[in-house]
Amino acid sequence: MGELLAFAASVTWAFGTANYGKLSQRYPAISVNMARAIYAFPFFVVAIFFEGASGQFSHITQAQVAWLALSAVSSFAVGDWIFLKSVADLGVSVALAIASCFPIWSALAGVFFRGETLSLMQWLGLLITLAGVIYIILLNHRAGEGKNPKRGVILGVLCSLFWFLNSLSVSIASRGLSPGVTNTIRIGFGIVFCMILGKSIIKVNSLWLSKKDYKRYGFLFIFEAFAGSYFYVYGMSHTPLAIGSVLTSLAPAITVPVAWIMGLEKVSYRKLAGVLSVVLGLVMLLGILN
């Protein structure tokens, strides 16, 4: 069940990003993330009572709270904001292909900090992933797509680091906690951090969307930010970090056809081939094919 829901989180994120990229063309990226968090938060509060998990709050440690705060920064507040900025520069599929390489950091952390070794298949997967990303970037550059390709690539790589921290934080902090409790805390932090980032650092004119867009995108916010986050936390807490990281990073393979169907990007089978190579490399890297 953990593996299935981790993959389901990729599906919800694929549909979310296909729309958020379009929405962030009209609103600051931080405002889009704020809307996602505001919609999801009350649903998680209700979910706690359906789970019968309200008593877990009395057992939460300070370390878990700190990890969940880091998760909020690495996702809703900063990580996802950087991602949407990268989308503006590169387009949805390219930005997502780069940012979704965060499992690479999981593998390298294991090698350098835990003394783990990679098999020949995993090293080959690493090379295929990197080659796929480079290929996609070169395709995008030759096609003249994106507003600022160099900045977009840098932001995409930076986002992958934040998403790695998010996966690590959730896998550690969610032990012994239900998805409802975990997400209520992390998204509560996300709302606070979005307000601080938006008003004190980025200094946007408004953190809010129009009433029309809140209604128009309300179902999507619930589908992605609530259901997707629920699936994500359950998946990460019920699978090994390496496996969960890969399964939650498969959105690029889903986003490309979604973007085509929605008319957000032009059909490019070369780009699809690059994205699929990234996904295959990640699967090999984390040893799923071993």
Written account of the structure:
There is one protein chain. It is built from 14 helices and no strands. It has helices at residues 2-23, 29-51, 62-77, 79-90, 92-99, 103-113, 120-142, 149-173, 179-202, 211-216, 218-237, 241-247, 251-261, 269-285. The mean pLDDT is 87. With 290 residues, the chain is mainly α. The protein is 78% helix and 0% strand. It has one domain.
What proportion of the residues form beta strands (DSSP E)? under 5%
- What general outline do the C-alpha atoms trace? globular
Q: Radius of gyration in whole Å, from Cα?
A: 18 Å
Query: What structural category do the secondary elements indicate?
Result: mainly alpha
SSE order? HHHHHHHHHHHHHH
Count the strands?
Answer: 0
Straight-line distance between termini: 21 Å
- Percentage of residues in helical conformation: over 70%
**Which segments are poorly predicted (pLDDT under 50) over 5 or more consecutive residues?**
none
How many discrete structural domains?
1
Largest sheet: none
Mean pLDDT: 87
> What's the helix count?
14
Short structural description:
Helices cover 78% and strands 0% of the residues. The chain is built from 14 helices and no strands.
Keywords:
single chain; 290 residues; mainly alpha; 78% helix; globular
